[in-house]
Amino acid sequence: MATQQTQVLGRALLTPAVALLFIWMIVPLAMTIYFSTLHYSLLDSEAWSFVGLENFRYFLTDPAFLTALRNTLVLVGSVLAITILLGTPLALLLDQQVVGRSIIRLMVIAPFFVMPTVSALVWKNLLMHPVSGLFAWVATLVGTTPIDWFNDVPLFSVILIVAWQWLPFATLILLTALQSQDEEQKEAAEMDGASALSTFIYLTLPHLARPITVVILIETIFLLTVFAEIFVTTGGGPGLATTNIAFLIYTQALVQYDVGNASAGGLVAVVIANIVAFFLVRIVGRNLEA
Amino acid sequence: MARKVTARRVWVSTAAAWLFGFLIFLPILWMVLTSFKTELEAFSMPPKFLLFHWTTENYATVQERSDYFHHAVNSLLIAGGSTLIAMIIAIPAAWSMAFAPTRRTKDILLWMLSTKMMPSVGVLLPIYLIYRDFGLLDRRAGLVMILCLGNLPIVIWMLFTYFKEIPKDILEAARMDGATIGRELVYVLTPMAIPGLASTLLLNFILAWNEAFWTLNLSTSDAAPLTVFIASYSSPEGLFWAKLSAASTLAIAPIIILGWFTQRQLVRGLTFGAVK
Lengths: 290, 276
What we know:
The complex is a heterodimer of chains A (about 290) and B (about 280). By secondary structure, chain A is mainly α.
């Protein structure tokens, strides 16, 4: 139905968006690549020189990088595990006949809309404070010593906060997927005498495989660059205990003003994200054809 | 046909679901309660749940001492501005891809999606330096620009999936009746697209309001939105729990309410149509 006129019009309408996104993607990335080959500090911007791949060697062999990489993987992996292992039963529960479901849904979804700086500070102060926090009070109630969260288990504390923010996302997506499941199929299985467990394993779980994959990929993309939660609670510390790759690059860029090194780190982050993005784009692309 | 469920099972599920929901909501609830306490009672041990001296003085102090409204206005202008500009750029693009697709449309869509996946931190320095040299640091215009570009792929994708659902037959019928493209847009497409446009607008406003990477790195005071304002409470000398809670409650209340209206669209917008 597309006449030549609409074709031309279509292209004209599409161009501004494509051009803007292209510039937005290419210009900073090209600059990052260029900077990554320089010895260049903002503190001494006169003295800069070309050093080739030296920054990459430095960044990748820096012990801080390995620590940050480990922290990043632990953070991403733990948050994924928590949100999916809690989100699946929660979604199954909300898919049941439940009195007041819409109100529960609202309560469950709410954390996703809380800005990261608020959730981090509320958790750190009101809940996790070792003396006056709500958790400390619960600990004394059950007769254990309160945990000094951000000193004793700093990375785990950050993980808890981030998991709380992303649990609604996982739950909501899995719930949406569950609601599109074929009811008649489940009924047929029940009539044939299938137990609730085998219905879950053979019908529901395969149905959830795809949304779970989508949750994993999308969360990973956001979780790889968790920043604000670390920025307002620990500042990456104590030591490097809560420094992830994003925070390490930020420190090198805007605290130490080491342009070359931060750019090399930035490219490493881009490569890691691209590996994940590759799989997500393929899944989404397959869906476009359907 | 509804499945038969025993009353006992309904009550067990209900109790479990309410318990889960309550626990997840508890941090927000606790924050709102704390915002109505005095600073002394906010710290008190054991904590006071409902039987405390309710006061609204924190809300008044937050405004008087820290210029809350300045930052709220910044949030509103930055989130609103970036969303509106993104919509203006995205509507024609999404329209074009949904109604005049070419062989390359799918590739363009996927490419747009991939730009969203570039980690912001990878381009932090170039953006920071460009902004410094053009005097855009701590300027609202700078934040509007960056958030607009950052959210543009999501806006285009959401609009595309909505436009895709508008039946093409109707357009053809209108065209048969001699409608021009302009009339077709105004009388046929727009009315059908309004729900999709509204939810795209809302969801992206929320995302921009809560954005906390660029706002923290590119603004400090003049242009600082609420994300940055709240972050200033993280310094040890700023530790006033009741005031932090009051400021936080004010910062998230409008967004949670907006968010509750968009929960359906959230799935669609953030999964790029991969889950419906």
